[in-house]
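Title: Comparing notes on inverse folding

I've been comparing how different people in this forum approach sequence design from structure. To keep things fair, I'm posting one structure and asking everyone to reply with a full sequence. Here's the target:
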């Protein structure tokens, strides 16, 4: 929820922060706005890279607390910012929190949950990201002028991100550490207590079995120095393929341009003359939430691969239709000018909803699931870290280039949307050729599929079992 709120709240805030952060000599420019937006992604990249290492030292719970502190500090900093520079710092601090959260929360969920529930629980995480984004838009709508003055509105929209972090900070005292980390730090009794609590009615022999499995995995992991893991991830064919597919999917999730809508949809809608751009932008966030919920129900029934192969063509159609609509829409250069009524305005919303729906049902959620189930224990930390980093690097590129690209190319949003469509086309081919179906397969079966090379398994075997949690 915090990940979602803090990445999306910028959409409404961007509409109002200009006058507060401008000086007579230096008004806030498009570049400043891009920098303010994308500093969060850059912070997230750095945060994600360190989170894994920290998680092994101070525990998964400890790192969630660290993320909360960053969320709270960053929110306060943004709310009090007086210049573009200090705003960039505030957003980068929040970004650190987002990056730490984006790595640690799926890890925490997957280490704590029984393997048969892992995929769907990771989708719940994405569902909450999209819910946080919707809340951010709703808060943006409610607090925008005239409810609050222009200066107070964006300060409250961004500052409120600290509130859920305070709640989580307290709630985490009532949550357990993961059994895997406890075993790794020779706290076996506590680990047994957590396993009993999570699984409910497990017999003592089964608890021992689960703990035995964890111990085996932990042994191989802790004996490996970092360089050995690095070698293993590139030299072993199955690991290399797992890494390539995870990074490919995370890269596609961002390079398809979705977050340019998430961050800038209010700006886009105000440019094409919508009276209430934030309300209109809520359509984007709402569609994302609803179709991520649908993904939750479909992911185990239809299979990851098949959903992706439906999702990407839908995105391409949506993007090309948006490009056509942009081509026909005049761009307003001042907020005072009135657009002439045009059929393309409502059509643009419908086309964007098509794109967002197609994205949310597959590309929006599946990369997070795949990276949590593809890597064997030995390289899991490193592999998920690298895939998450790929996500944030491309998130940064898309966030930083959107406004300048639109400004240069305009009527150029259409050009950019065609570029996103081409990226999706490449993504489709890559997924079609390389990504094997893993629905219902156990960890070791996934490994054997990956060992045997690209795209060998199009099977649909059901019945997830236990594995090396
Ligand atoms: O899975 C999430 C989700 O799709 C969000 O809506 C998006 O903003 C994030 O970048 C992505 O990682």
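Reply #1:
Here's my take.
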């Amino acid at each position: 929820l915090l990940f979602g709120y803090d990445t999306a709240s910028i959409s409404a805030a961007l509409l109002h922060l200009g006058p507060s952060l401008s000086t007579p000599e230096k008004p806030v420019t498009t570049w400043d706005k891009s920098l303010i937006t994308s500093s969060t992604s850059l912070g997230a990249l750095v945060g994600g890279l360190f989170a894994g290492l920290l998680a092994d030292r101070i525990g998964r719970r400890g790192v969630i607390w660290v993320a909360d502190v960053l969320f709270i500090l960053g929110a306060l900093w943004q709310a009090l910012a007086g210049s573009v520079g200090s705003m960039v710092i505030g957003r980068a601090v929040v970004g650190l929190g987002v990056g730490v959260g984006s790595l640690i929360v799926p890890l925490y969920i997957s280490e704590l949950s029984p393997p048969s529930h892992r995929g769907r629980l990771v989708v719940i995480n994405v569902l909450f990201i999209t819910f946080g984004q919707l809340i951010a838009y709703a808060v943006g709508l409610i607090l925008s002028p005239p409810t609050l003055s222009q200066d107070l509105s964006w300060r409250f929209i961004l500052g409120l991100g600290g509130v859920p972090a305070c709640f989580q900070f307290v709630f985490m005292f009532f949550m357990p550490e993961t059994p895997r980390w406890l075993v790794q730090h020779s706290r076996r009794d506590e680990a047994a207590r957590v396993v009993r609590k999570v699984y409910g009615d497990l017999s003592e022999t089964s608890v021992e079995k689960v703990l035995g499995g964890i111990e085996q995995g932990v042994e191989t992991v802790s004996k490996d120095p970092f360089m050995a893991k690095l070698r293993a991830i590139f030299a072993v064919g199955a690991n290399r393929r797992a890494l390539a597919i995870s990074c490919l999917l995370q890269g596609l999730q961002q390079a398809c341009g979705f977050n340019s809508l998430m961050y800038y949809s209010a700006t886009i809608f105000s440019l094409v003359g919508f009276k209430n751009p934030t309300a209109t932008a809520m359509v984007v966030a709402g569609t994302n939430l609803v179709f991520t919920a649908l993904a939750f129900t479909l992911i185990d029934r239809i299979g990851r691969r098949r959903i992706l192969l439906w999702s990407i063509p839908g995105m391409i159609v949506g993007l090309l239709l948006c490009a056509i609509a942009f081509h026909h829409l005049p761009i307003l250069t001042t907020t005072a000018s009135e657009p002439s009524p045009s059929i393309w305005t409502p059509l643009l919303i419908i086309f964007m909803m098509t794109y967002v729906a197609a994205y949310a049902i597959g590309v929006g959620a599946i990369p997070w699931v795949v990276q949590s189930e593809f890597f064997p224990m030995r390289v899991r930390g490193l592999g998920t870290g690298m895939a998450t980093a790929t996500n944030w690097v491309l998130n940064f590129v898309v966030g930083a280039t959107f406004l300048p690209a639109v400004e240069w190319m305009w009527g150029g949003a259409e050009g950019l949307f065609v570029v996103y469509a081409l990226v999706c086309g490449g993504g489709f081919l890559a997924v079609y050729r390389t990504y094997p179906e893993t629905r219902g397969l156990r960890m070791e079966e996934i490994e054997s599929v990956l060992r045997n090379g690209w795209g060998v398994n199009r099977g649909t075997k059901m019945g997830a079992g236990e594995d090396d949690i």
